[in-house]
Structure formats: C-alpha cells, structure tokens
Request: fold
Amino acid sequence: MASPIEQFAIKPIIPIHVGGVDISFTNSALYMVIAVVVATVFLTGAMSKRALIPGRLQSMVEMIFEFVANMLRENAGSGSQKYFPFIFTLFMFVLVGNLLGLTPYSFTYTSHIIVTAGLAVLVFLGVTVIGFAKHGTGYLRMFFPHGAPIILAPILVPIELVSYLSRPFSLSVRLAANMTVGHIMLKVIGGFVISLGLLGILPFAGIMGVTILELGIACLQAYIFTVLSCIYLHDALHLH
Reply:
C-alpha cells in the first residue's frame, strides 16, 4: 500500500534545467494551470449569456461575486473595492485548488507550504506597500497602538513587530496544514477500505463522512485565507 505522504510528492512532467537550476514543469504547476483554466471557463461561461433572470450557473457566479465583495467591504472598509480583482482572484485560486485536490488521482497544490507561503508573502508585501504608499512613515504607527502610554513602547513595539512579521507564516501554515492533514486522513481510511475487503463497509462509510467534511474545510480555508487578507488590507488602509 502506498504511503499516505506519497500523494504530496512533486514530480517533474517536463524537465527543464537552466544554469544548473531546476525549473521543471511539475504536477503542482500542472494543477495550478488546470485551476486557472477551470475557474476562467466556469466564470466566463456562466456569464457569457447574462440574463435578467439568471440561470443556475449565472446565479452561482453572482453569489460568489457578492460573497467576496461583501467580505472585502465588511473587513477592509472604505476605499478597498479597487482591490476587489486581486481578492477575488486569490479566493478563486485557493478555493478551486482545494476542491480539485479532492478529486481522485489529483494533486493538491495548496497542501505545499511553498505555494501557500508564496501567496501569503504576496499578500504581506502588497499590504505593506499599500500602507506606506497611503500613510508614508505614518504607517509605522501600526507598531504602537493609539492611546498607549509612551513608557510601554519598548514592550509594545517589539510585540507588534513580531505579530506583523508573523502574518505570512500563520497565513501559509494554516492553509497548508489543513489540506495536508485532511488528505492524509482520506488516504489512511481509504487504505482500510481496501485491506479489509467486505469488512471495509464501515471505513467506507467513514471515508464518505470525511470527504463531506473535507469539502466544507476546503471552502472554509479559502474563506479564512481571503478574509485574513482583507483584514490585513484594512490595517494598511486605516491603521489600527
């Protein structure tokens, strides 16, 4: 029986080496491309025949659109709507990646810390640039809460700085860890189904329950990743 960890192995599909650096096109990259294609086809296809009374696909896309727009408006505040294209793209990329990973024989690129860290660092650098662009050096007030006694600065500033710098770590680890643990559970329970034969009916029922749970977690983790990005954007736009 294959190891539960084997499903996370990155394998080159098109080997590419430039100057001794391995930049091969891998199974992870393939599923990122598939996710982009699936999301693009779904969104454009559903909205290609827009109608006053929407059909099922159009209604679904409009619900997703409104969901993300409300999330951004409620958590990032005024002046945040111009960043909607990025937030919407981020949400769809994570959500489709999570859901694709639940299909048989697929690859979950959001289970790899390098992918989630890349997204988290992009968000972190983006909101930092926005913060300094909007407030200038006044953005440094982020590290000293308004109204706090100046005598507490030697304590509060390092705490706020560590908290700020830990954002990309917590953002990336949370998503990758949840995706990894869930898929390991599915693999282990699936192994019991095969090895037990006719007696595998109980673990089979269990794997159905875990699959439904993982569907919920896939959507929830996409939401959490995006809503935290919105909260960080709020801090950049409005400070504490």
About this structure: The mean pLDDT is 88.
